[in-house]
Amino acid sequence: xxxxxxxxxxxxxIATNKAQxxxxxxxxxxxxxxxxxxxTYCNELLTETHEYRRLISExxxxxxxxxDDSIAKKAMFNLFAGCAxxxxxxxxxxxxxxxxxxxxxxxxxxxxxxxTALSRLNYVYxxxxxxxxxxxxxxxxxxxxxxSASVTDxxxxxxxxxxxxxxxxxxxxxxxxxxxxxxxxxxxLKTDTLITSTINLGYDYSNLANxxxxxxxxxxxxxxxxxxxxIIGDQALTGNEETLYLYFEQSFLGLDKPDSAxxxxxxxxxxxxxxxxxxxxxxxxxFLYGNYFLNKNKIDSAYYYSLKSRALAIKSExxxxxxxxxxxxxxxxxxxxxxxxxxxxxxxxxxxxxEFYKDSYAGIHKTISDCYAQQKIWDSAYAHYxxxxxxxxxxxxxAANKNFADAEAKYQNKEKQQEITNKNLLLSVAxxxxxxLVSGIGLLALSAVLLxxxxxxxxxxAVLLQEKNNTLEQLNTRLDEANQSKAKxxxxxxxxxxxxxxxxxxxxxxxxxxxxxxxxEQKNSLTEKIQTATGSLLETMEDLLIWSxxxxxxxxxxxxxxxxxxxxxxxxxxxxxxxxxxxxxxxxDLLLDTTAKTDSYYLQTIVRNLLQxxxxxxxxxxxxxxxxxxxxxxxxxxxxxxxxxxxQLQYEQFINDTDSTKSFNGLGLHLVHELSQKTGIQIAYVTxxxxxxKVNIIIxx
Length: 701
What we know:
The protein is α+β, with helices and mostly antiparallel strands. It has 27 helices and seven strands.
């Protein structure tokens, strides 16, 4: 398996097995010799994970050695620094140095450097959830893959794009670009004299097979693995390819052929006699068998392989492998009814990063919730189920956005195809007209008359066509607006309705599991919570109806005298469950008998959404201050909460960002903005301190 980072670096950096000792530059005569020695030293540091922080300072020292006109060498040391910052998770610095490396590389056509910098930037931007910059880096790598004169550079670019799509679990696109990269590598073997080994082609086939495994197309995966085995041969487990046998095992287990998988399982263990660094791979091999038997409900066999997987994971010192084996062990404990042990095992890995494995993170919380429920520890069961529900909701929201994007792409492709058909039709008409002109060249007088008639008809047709085009453009504009409103409505429904429905379901489930164990007081308390959650659901549905109404041309408001205190108290009651979950207390400083002329329903919606955001932003056991202030020309309701400060500038940037409705809290703020605009209410954020936020709801008198 080619590593994500070093697989590219080895094309232009020379890796060595020397100890990582800084060279004595005084022993080198020329500046070029000093730079090359320092480059080799930095490359050695790059191969050792514990040396990344040291590499940062050494790469910067390398930059001081290089003259200003050595742009390629500057790009190289910027690349060293950027990768070191990335691996120490100092992402702002990583972005700075990797961007410099990409820019400098492009100036001197060092495409391999640029591809490496772009692929690492793509990972960093993905981690930071900067979708715009992710798309930009992928677009640039795709341009290199399609335009570069070098077959090798095109292959590297397409391979990097394929890895990007594999990292975000878009396996169809990953396969598409991997096949392109593999074909380019075959071409490079024929045309590039520097590439003579076919072993990387075997790696490409093996990695392609892994993508098909992820899609559950195990037979197709085995086809590619057989091709990989023919090329890699006896270098499996002795060269750099450590996963060929592992992918075979995964494929055969997917096809429910454990005996065939066992052949490759034994081959991996035989390889341990030649290498002592395969603990992570052997842990994964046992994990695959343990997971297979767990799915078959053969718990004893699953437990046997799980123990072996964890023992090898500990030897490997690989955090991700150890996390995966512990997750398997926790699931087995749950199946065995060992609920306390399952909770201890699974909680021990919750501190691990699950940035790219949100579904696994959600599953762990679901299992912990079930364990607590089996022990009738309902508060803890609900707390973990809530996390599971929120993460699942986020994943469903992301999947819905992807489906919308795919549908839009398909629509655009059909539109382009129709455009090509229309152009071909116009070309056909033009050819026929040309034929008529040639045939009538001998009859000049008649041709002149025909041309005049033809010109007049075309003019009428052009006018008519222009009118039709204008009408069609107006219809397309309206259709686009309707589609955007529909997509936004679906997004709101998937976000805002699912959470309260999940709460109601969980309360009812808890009541159903053991109704006799609950006292009358507990039943009454649970009934009140169900009523509160149901009220929240009804309130959310009302929000949706209000928002839908704001999108219609017939939108109208009902201005009347509204008492302020009942509105605030109603919102606090609706959000009581949210407040109790975080033990939030309220400090109210409200003027008695205060009224304002506005629409009571829309004011309540605005206050409720802003109060809900204050609860989410507040820390556990926090306090929220609510006050009213009477001004000569207005009445102000202020909500002050603890937590990270949120400024007016952030609010204005947020509501002006058309993509912000995809975030977890974006829909509520957009609804607040639309209702305040239509009712004349002003929303103003102020930041009293760096650890608090105050929002003022200013109602004109």
